[in-house]
Specification:
Strand content: under 5%
InterPro entries: Poly_Biosynth_Transport
Number of strands: 2
Subcellular location: Cell membrane
Number of helices: 16
Number of domains: 2
Helix content: over 70%
Strand order of the largest sheet: 1-2
Largest sheet: 2 strands, parallel
Structural class: mainly alpha
Keywords: Cell membrane, Membrane, Transmembrane, Transmembrane helix
Transmembrane segments: 36-59, 65-85, 106-130, 209-228, 249-268, 333-353, 365-389, 409-431, 437-456
Biased composition (Polar residues): 1-17
Shape: globular
Length: 463
């Protein structure tokens, strides 16, 4: 294995970064095409899940299905163990690709993969050896479910490792805007996983069999991701590590990890507070409204798969115009799409809620929904400046903003929820989202205003 202790070579350039050769136009086309593929990649598993879930619930039974959902939650929390290497690999890989530096791109991927593997393998190992303790001492499960759950947790740790590795191996696809390949792989394997679980249950393999299938499909997806990435970047088959990349990758990834952790707290805390200060029924009204309002973020989320690598490529350009132009175009396009989507949701919300969930929800959830739509509108708009800040190496700005929000937000949520129930929780969440969005837009404007031609940090130190 080659270890590169030299400073990265920044002398290699590519004419593709010249904004005057049509590169920006190609990026815009790739951005639109990638977003459409991302929407399709999210829609296919969603449809499959809507079809398969009723069968899984009946075949597993309520308690075992609850255990399966719990395992998914635990694995979701373990996802923090990758310390943000998927985003870090995409950012630094996109910059190397924009310069035409293939060796550097390979070094970024392999170095990020090694950094990622250490905490991920440790987390998987701890889950495997502590599964009995978790089941017997932390979870209040019936005796008949304890052994199957212990086995399922141990199996799921293997699938977790495979999925984490895939998050780094997809870098060549994302930086080349081959979102079609990325979404084809992830969507097909996710649909296969969702569709085959009922078959496994029909064969009598129970909860451990279902988790084994999920883990095996995650392993196959990682292998397929590696094969496709190797075709796009043939030199990837030759492992290359760069010592000088370790610090910037960890620094950047840690900032992304903090954003994810704090966002998790800010996104879900109001639900817990609402139960504490109002009632479970108020939470039900709020949850239905929140689920529908969050549909506004599907488009910004799909856009992000292409937007982040696009910004990362453009920010190494010596010309300011390309990055500023794409930023402006994305903001304007997203503004129009979100406005139309929000108007559509608000117009049809009450008849839909009444038909889908019942007259009670049509009556009690509609006001929280209107309020949450406003908050989700601003949250969706903030995706563009957020990814700009991350692409130019300033994710810590977002971390500071969100960390400063936690205490005021919790106090505001408790006060409003105790007085106004679901409506109060919706007001608290939306006010936080609006303020956060406006501050992030202000910071992004400052970054663009002070943007200089010496963008690239030649020592690979993240500011």
């Amino acid at each position: 294995m080659k270890k590169n202790n030299e400073q990265p070579n920044f002398s290699k350039t590519t004419p593709s970064c010249n904004p005057h050769d049509g590169h920006s136009e190609r990026l815009n086309a790739n951005l639109v095409r990638g977003s459409l593929w991302s929407i399709g990649g999210q829609a296919a598993p969603l449809v499959a899940s809507m079809i398969a879930t009723p069968f899984v619930i009946r075949l597993l039974g309520t308690e075992s299905y609850g255990v399966l959902a719990l395992i998914n939650v635990l694995i979701g929390y373990l996802g923090f163990a990758d310390i943000g290497m998927s985003s870090a690999s995409t950012k630094f890989g996109a910059e190397a690709n924009a310069r035409g530096d293939t060796e550097e791109e390979v070094a970024v991927i392999w170095t990020a993969l090694v950094i990622n593997s250490i905490p991920v393998l440790l987390a998987a190992f701890l889950l495997a050896i502590m599964s009995r303790t978790i089941v017997e001492q932390l979870l209040d499960l019936p005796q008949s479910l304890q052994e199957p759950t212990i086995l399922a947790l141990r199996i799921s740790s293997l699938g977790f490792v495979a999925r984490s590795i895939s998050g780094v191996l997809n870098t060549p696809q994302l930086v080349r805007f081959r979102v079609d390949l990325y979404n084809s792989i992830t969507a097909s394997y996710n649909v296969a996983q969702i569709s085959l679980v009922p078959v496994v249950l029909l064969l009598g393999l129970g909860l451990p069999g279902a988790v084994l299938l999920i883990s095996f499909i995650n392993f196959l997806m990682a292998v397929n991701m590696a094969l496709i990435s190797n075709k796009l970047l043939p030199f990837l088959r030759k492992p290359t590590l760069s010592i000088v990349l370790v610090k910037p990758l960890i620094t950047y990834g840690s900032a992304i990890l903090l954003i994810v952790l704090i966002s998790t707290v800010l996104t879900g805390t109001e639900k817990i507070v609402l139960v504490r200060f109002a009632s479970v029924k108020a939470l039900a009204y709020y949850s239905v409204a929140f689920t529908i309002a969050k549909l506004l973020n599907v488009l910004p989320g799909a856009l992000s798969q292409s937007l982040f690598p696009a910004f990362s490529r453009l920010q190494v350009n010596t010309e300011k115009k390309s990055l500023k132009t794409m930023y402006s175009q994305c903001c304007r396009g997203l503004l129009l799409c979100l406005f139309l989507s929000a108007t559509f949701i608000c117009f049809f919300a009450q008849p839909f809620l009444t038909t889908w969930a019942g007259a009670e929800y049509g009556r009690e959830s509609i006001i929280p929904l209107y309020i949450l739509v406003m908050g989700c509108f601003f949250e969706g708009m903030s995706y563009v400046p957020s990814f700009l800040l991350q692409a130019v190496g300033k994710p810590y700005m977002i971390t500071y903003i969100q960390a400063a929000e936690i205490l005021p937000y919790l106090l505001m949520t408790a006060l409003l929820s105790s007085s106004f129930g679901a409506v109060g929780a919706a007001v608290a969440w939306s006010l936080r989202a609006i303020v956060e969005s406006l501050v992030i837009f202000g910071l992004a404007a400052r970054v663009l205003a002070s943007y200089s031609s010496t963008i690239v940090d030649r020592s690979y130190k993240v500011p």
